[in-house]
Amino acid sequence: MIENVTQKLKEIISGELDVNLKPEEIDENVSLFEEGLGLDSVVIMEFISLIEANFGFQLSDDELNMESFKDLRTLASLISDKQMGYS
């Protein structure tokens, strides 16, 4: 399940955001911010909207923090937990 979520997140980043990477070039362990993928706050806000639209739920204020978005693996785990009703 988490692998499917991770792949979908890579596809969103590659296809919908202004990032010049193919899904297979995106490392799930790399930071989404400066030293990693380099996503800025505007792009992150767009990414959040796309996540909510693609996965069919809203992220709570508590979930919208730097720790949840530190890398794709962490974010995919949060999304998987929400899909299974744990969060």
From TrEMBL:
Pfam families: PP-binding
Occurrences of domain Carrier (ranges): 3-83
Source taxon at top rank: Bacteria
PROSITE patterns, alphabetized: CARRIER (PS50075)
InterPro entries, alphabetized: ACP-like_sf (IPR036736), PP-bd_ACP (IPR009081)
SUPFAM superfamilies for the chain: ACP-like
Name under which the protein is recorded: Acyl carrier protein
Organism whose genome encodes this protein: Candidatus Kentrum eta
